[in-house]
Amino acid sequence: MQQITPQRVAELLAGPGELALLDVREQGVHYRGHPFFACSAPLSRLELVIGDLVPRRTAPVVLLDDGKEGLAEQAENKLKELHYSDVSVMSGGTGGWKAAGYELFSGVNVPSKAFGEFVEHHYATPRIAPGELKRLQEIKKVLVVDSRPFEEYHRMNIPGGIDVPGAELVYRIHDLAPSPDTLIVVNCAGRTRSIIGCQSLRNAGIQNPVVALKDGTMGWELAGYECERGASRVAPPPSGEGRDKAHAAAERVAQRLMESRFTLDDFRTQLAQVKKMGPIGQLLGMIPGAGQLAGAAQEAVDDGHLKRIEAIIDSMTPAERHHPELIKASRRRRIATGSGTTPADVNRLLKQFGEMQRLMRQFGSGRLPRGGNGLRSILGG
Predict the structure, then answer these.
(1) Fewest Cβ atoms closer than 10 Å to its Cβ: which of 62, 168, 284, 318?
(2) Sheet strands (E) in the chain
(3) Contact 70, 97 (CB under 8 A)
(4) What is the pLDDT of residues 110-120, one digit of tens each?
């Protein structure tokens, strides 16, 4: 048996390479607690699901259980029989992971759900309650688009809804809602995919009002309304005009991301979240190997560093907050006087902001920053 320590698994998860981390316990047990990026692959169904989960047999695979039952070892033997060439068992299982100082998360599809909650909080993604949607459907034109795969949509959907899988929403939406006055409601079974679908349309600059249906089909039925079953309405391929509009929307999003429009206003807002709900500790705790930064981050906020940042940024003009390169010596002195700080404090903030911009570009390109020095310099003053 080839073993790997939880610490090494954490390093691999934080690194640039690929890794399949599979929890071979039964799903009900998996849901009660597992590493953030672990995927459920029960031993009892392993041969049936492994081809979809890990289609390339040379990919590195790490198996885990609770560290006591020997399920991971049995799964290792099965995968070797199926000619998987790089298979390891995490020593100690979930118990070893927790003992090493890493967190266990309950539920299913935890990474995507955490991302959805972050998106809704960060962008204030609007939503609509089932009762309000029902009322509006009776008095005006409303387009309901179901962002799930056809099989899920076909099983049950919001009455009148059209299936448009989330990745194709921006591509197909223009022909479905040619009038900018049409309200677009994005739904899924619960929350995450409707939030992401709604926000992707908003980020693409769709002129229509767009909202997410609160709690999806589940919320619709809990509100006492009936779902439609067996529907087969699917968004057609876009027309030439619709395709041109979709391409233009994609170009706008790409251009905005390439320009890295992260301003000092954004910087102030992000750091303020630490004070309100401690997300820097929670989110860093989700990143293997970064949990030790949480205490330093919160300490940096508690010692008054955030208040100095707020005072300095509030003393800037809107133009300076969006274009900090304008802030030369005389402006720095004025900002320092207005904020009750020193020019050295202003210089330090501008340096920290530049570091944050660099980190944001790294995250945007999919490269996770190594270590904690960058975050410490930003948060610690």
Answers:
(1) 318
(2) 3-4, 20-23, 39-40, 61-64, 87-90, 127-128, 142-146, 162-163, 183-187, 210-213
(3) no
(4) 888 888 988 89
Least confident span in 60-74, 176-190, 257-271, 293-307: 293-307
What is the value of pTM for the model shown? 0.61
Domain 3-108 fold: Oxidized Rhodanese; domain 1 (3.40.250)
* Token representation of residue 317: 């003009």
Whether 3-108 and 264-380 share one fold: the answer is no
Instruction: Give me the chain's average pLDDT, please.
Output: 85
Residues in contact with 381: Cβ distance below 8 Å, sequence separation at least 6, in sequence order: 300, 303, 305, 308, 348, 352
Q: Which CATH class is domain 264-380?
A: mainly alpha
CATH for 113-258 is 3.40.250.10
Q: Give the integer Cα–Cα distance in Å for 367 and 360.
A: 10
Give the integer Cα–Cα distance in Å for 175 and 242.
6
